[in-house]
Amino acid sequence: MELNGLERRVKAVLFDIDDTLVDLRSAMSTTLQHVSGPHLPHLQDQEWEEFKHLFWADPQGYYDMYLAGELTFVEQRVLRARHVHAVFGAAELDDEGFGRWNDEYQRLLPRHWAAFDDVAELLDALDAARLPYGAVSNNVEDYQRVKLDGCGLQRISVLVGTDTVGVAKPDPGIFHEGARRLGTDPSHTLYVGDNRLVDAEGAAAAGLLSVWLNRSGVETGRFAGPEITSLSELTVLFSGSGAGPEGA
Ligand SMILES: [Mg+2]
């Protein structure tokens, strides 16, 4: 599937949220360093980068265990924090200490939530082309609603979370529910997400049109469909003369 020409087949667009619309990685990084800083006063800048990278990489797969229902959302976060604290030699915190760590993290994280710079223009282009859009996310709906609103993305009114249909991406059911709520057939619904496997390949396997947003360009895995590094590439596509439903 080519990117060019896609605008003629697309009747609606669904987005992943975290690191597609919302720069969660930056928000988490800033929050992590702030909250863990007092416990790791010896770390230099480069080590902080490694610390944040390790938290993000989640080598133990705690986030996947949360998705599988084996951990709560807070448990997966605290277990990831425990792991990186141990690796970087922080003085050990007991359960109560990590409880306070988590409270502080939760309090500060939303202050750093922000949409990427390329989001508003694309949504404007979709509005102009009268293409409906929404979000399908592997987090719970209420939490993601607060996040979208906090980022000024209230206009994304259709939101499907893991608790909406009881399954997570890449299960086809969650993609299909997004398309159903937009009122389009999955085969005419474009999914845009940053995770190659869960988003790009998952949506394609579920019968949607699919574009992989590889923002960093660092991951070199292959996706059979179109790959973009910025949402601006879609803005150009949907702002072109071919965009929009018939007669629009
Ligand atoms: Mg994502």
Fraction in beta strands: 5-15%
Q: Can you tell me the CATH class of the largest domain?
A: Alpha Beta
Query: Low-confidence parts, pLDDT < 50 over ≥5 residues?
Result: none
- Which ions and ligands are bound to the chains? magnesium ion
- The overall pLDDT average reads 93
Helix content: 40-55%
CATH superfamily annotation of the largest domain? HAD superfamily/HAD-like
Q: CATH topology of the largest domain, what is it called? A: Rossmann fold
Number of strands: 6
The tally of helices reads 12
Shape: elongated
Span of the ends, CA to CA: 25 Å
If classified by CATH, what would the architecture of the largest domain be?
3-Layer(aba) Sandwich
* Gyration radius, rounded: 19 Å
Structural class: alpha/beta
Strand order of the largest sheet: 3-2-1-4-5-6
Number of domains: 2
Order of helices and strands: HEHHHHHHEHEHHEHEEH
What characterizes the major β-sheet? 6 strands, parallel
